[in-house]
Amino acid sequence: MKNTDERHNLTKSEVVEDIPLACSDELAAVELFEQLRWGNTPACVHCGSISVYKMLDARTGGRNKRYLWRCHDCKQQFTVRIGTVYEESRIPLRHWACAFWRASTSKKGVAALEIQRHCQISYKSALFLMNRIRFAMAPENPAGDKLAGTVECDETYVGGKPRFKGDNPRGRGTKKTPVFAAVERQGRIRRQVVADVSGKTLKGAIREMVSEQSRIVTDDFLPYQGIGKEFAGGHHTVAHSTREYVRGDIHTNTAESSFALLKRGIMGIYHNVSKEYLHRYLWQFDFLWNGRKLNDGERTVAAIRAAEGKRLMYKAA
């Protein structure tokens, strides 16, 4: 692990070198999180002053066992945890480092049971970690940062069982949870759990996620009809009902590919996700999709930095 003076030039790719030590050594984990949050200029989380200093242990001369800082201006103590998803957590930061790394680099997700085994913590603590990391991965301002260009829109069903024996286990008419997705070609994705797949619901989701200057592409599912007049690029469809899947550049293959990854993760890694918590898993899979062009170190850095300014209280866990 680089010392503090050397690490202000740490690149995102070099996080790959530091993570293994940070996952096993608490001081290394604290220094990694501090560097990623403050760089070479630590600042007070209460007043913003950069006139701060590390509190040292009187007997050893090393870092305070709680890794505290103190501000010269407001006189308050603070740590790198304040104002993040891991504030007030008693779980060591080395376990947070491990969980952030695994959650950011596993294409189909990582199970809490795996975090439990790797970190040697309780299953409840592992769930606590993963729920808050998924919350950190949630989009910052989805309403103000809409998708643009050519946007594919599609819906699918996740989890649950057929309502009656003999029902189609894959599609409509089941107790599965409907999920809507809007995906930019070669770009970002937004998914959300929806109450149903009615025209009112799906069109409302499109309006919420997609810029009015975009071109909408869907299959020929009836509830999408009529949305084109609201978008500058119009609404284009492929007729899945007649087994037409591609016509020129009109297709929903990107959206369907994203659903395939989501379902592989849920069936292969998580096995079962309740409707109550499904939106958090969508945050994680969307974060991984949107960061697919980053390397593992860059994606981990993005996840750790996204944890700042977010809190998920125990009652909401």
List the helices and strands and how they pair.
Layout: H1 15-22, H2 26-38, E1 52-54, E2 69-71, E3 77-78, H3 93-105, H4 112-119, H5 123-136, E4 150-158, E5 177-184, E6 189-193, H6 199-209, E7 215-219, E8 235-238, H7 253-270, H8 278-290, H9 296-306
Parallel strand pairs: 4-7, 7-8
Antiparallel strand pairs: 1-2, 2-3, 4-5, 5-6
Helix pairs in contact: 1-2, 2-3, 3-5, 3-9, 4-5, 5-8
What would you say this structure looks like, in words?
- The protein is an alpha/beta fold and 317 residues long.
- The chain has 2 domains: 7-136 and 304-316, no CATH class; 150-275, Nucleotidyltransferase, domain 5 (2-Layer Sandwich).
- 34% of the residues lie in helices and 12% in strands.
- The protein is built from 9 helices and 8 strands.
- The chain has helices at 15-22, 26-38, 93-105, 112-119, 123-136, 199-209, 253-270, 278-290, 296-306, and strands spanning 52-54, 69-71, 77-78, 150-158, 177-184, 189-193, 215-219, 235-238.
- A hairpin with a 5-residue loop joins strand 2 and strand 3.
